[in-house]
Design goal:
The complex is a heterotrimer of chains A (about 150), B (about 270) and C (about 325). Chain A is α/β, with parallel strands linked by helices. In chain A, about 45% of the residues lie in helices and about 15% in strands. Chain A has a single domain (about 10-140), classed as Rossmann fold (3-Layer(aba) Sandwich), CATH 3.40.50. By secondary structure, chain C is an alpha/beta fold. Chain C folds into two domains: about 1-65 and about 75-205, no CATH class; about 205-335, no CATH class. The longest helix of chain C has 19 residues, at about 285-305. The chains are: A alpha/beta (about 150), B alpha/beta (about 270), C alpha/beta (about 325).
Chain lengths: ~150, ~270, ~325
Amino acid sequence: MSDFEPKVVAFVCNWCTYAGADLTGTSRIKYASNVKIIRFPCTGRIDFMLLLKAFANGADGIIVSGCHPNDCHYTSGNFHAKRRWIVFKELMDFMGIDMNRITFSWVSAAEGARWAEVVNTTVARIRELGPYVSYKEMVNRPVEEEVRNE
Amino acid sequence: MNNLISKAKELLEGKAVHVVIGYEAGPTGVARPAFITDPSGADMLIYDDRCVQNLAVYLTKPEVKSLGRMAIVANLPVMRSIMMLISEQQLFAESIVVLGISDKGDLLDIADIQVMQAYIEKSDLSNPARDREPLTALNKLSPGERFSYWQKELSRCIKCYACRQACPMCYCTRCTVEVNQPQWIPVQSNTLGNMEWHILRAMHLAGRCISCGECGRSCPVGIPCHLLTMHLVDQVHDYFNIYAGTSDKMSSVLSTFEPNDKESFII
Amino acid sequence: MEATRKLIRRQSLEKLYNALSETRKIYAPVMAEDKQITYCYNPSFAEVTFDHIRSTMSPKNVLFPKVENLFYYTNEKTESVISVLDLNKIPEVVLWGAHPCDAAAIDVLRSIFCWEIKDEFFAKRLEKLVVIGLSCHQSDEYCFCTSTGLAPDSKNGSDILLSRLQGGDYQAEILTEKGQSIVDSLPDLFEPVTGEQVVITEVKQKFDHRKVTEKLATSFEHPFWVSNSLRCIGCGACAYLCPTCACFDIQDETAGRKGRRYRSWDSCGFGLFTLHTSGHNPRSVQSQRWRQRIMHKFSYMPERNESLGCVGCGRCSSGCPVDMNIAEQLAALQNI
């Protein structure tokens, strides 16, 4: 499908990755515009349910990004996040949810070029994978066993 | 069996406890939880293969706590649940008497928490054999096949919350699904919402599940939701070398960390 | 209408099924891979089971779905625009193979949903429903229809009641106009009865519901509510499996500007069922909720709806994780 443009949602922390993305912009580095960035104070604040809601609301891919370990603005938020993602990823794998569609990264405020790279690689990968049809189908599937009166 | 009954009688007669939580046989032959408050009632206590309910779920119920000091018949999963409840500040060790039962059905002498901890530490804490088989089988499938499997199973979920109610670790008086600011999980049953519910439940039990299997057993439509929580039991052990319910001073797996927690997917 | 009895041979039964499925949806019981019996829409005749004692879920879904959209709305600048559903789009449905307990439950549900104010959704679904009942040639220790004033061959709620004959064919009792119109449209399938005996199981009576109702009127403060309910874990399994339980929750789900209002099953056994916005909960303890369940079904409903709120199907007891065996408790209750 050559005209498929993936929708990618990025959950990023304010102090590192968001600032890094800002730098990408001020450095005039071009990168794929498919990404919608959502700013959090810290990756530790990112609830795993939000990732599921992103898929349910039409995202084909997700990026989760924050400060490098030991650089967290709140000291340890990203360590909590890391542990959470380890467990969450295993659960998602077990349930067959496509973890190739989620990129986890550490991108610092100085890594403007790197942010562009993370986004471009992710978007390219999602473009290959195609739209997340099986998840979207779940959203639209009528309620089981209900005789629809509409 | 006789040891258990006489110990229960002794505790009740001496007023060391006001209620013994154990198992009795119902008229259809099914074993079910029993709450013995009178020494003569202790004769109804049984312990055999039919006794599977995790009795620790009653230790946080106000209806049971109001009966007074509790003694509880505790096989390994129940002992581990008790340990988890103590480590999460939901129970005081001094407020209960543990009537430990070995895997052979014999009454153990559990004098205090340290004795219980020692018993737990020398036991096999991995997932029970009968559940390891379906877990292995599922892990052999491709992700797409697993997705179809869980979609099919979870589309049948009726959101009765028996899984949550049967679990001793789900003791929140206001569960996150019963909050509507925000409404994380839809109230109704639909495939997507049901998946979200079971994902949320498994994540909230990560590092806390002690593999009793009650969630799956209590499901009225037979969804093996215990496989989700038990899968994470394996993962938490593989990654962080932790099994739940092994110490009254355990910290919660998902609210602590080691700086060198290993992962291979963060770029 | 005076009931008539006809013979319908096994092969004719298949023809009847197939003929009905041409113009209607059929909700029939099938056996799943794990041996559970579930109702589903439009299975092939070969998949339909005639040998089940009870399905896991009751067929009340066909009249009172576990989720039912009530209306849609769009939030415009100054008002919400409601888009009402056209209930005439509800299709004709045949409930096939409902045992007498489940068929009788339809009458109980009707006494609730069409009481003083008629529930339009329920009423329309009922209007479009035909019930082909199936009397019971087997039962188990959880059945107690005979304690609720019913029997394994009760006619309540069925339009046509099938009963197995010794030789393997079926007797069809035509009980209502709806049933008669089906026979009239397929007269070749229905033959005159022979003298063959029907096979009906025996269900021993466990308690007398009239005694129970009488006892309950003076038992509100009895301590057995507490002792009997200690093991209840407050899950919704009994209410959700029950063919006569009708409590529901209403929720709005909005995404952006659009949304829908729906109702879904609820259970009086849930801890927060009666929680007020003020924080007060009149049934804050499980014994109060357990008492409510029993009183509602066996005291308040017979008093006010003239209909017992239970048909003795046994699903609550067989599905309960902690064996809150309702028949056992009521048998003991009637003797206190």
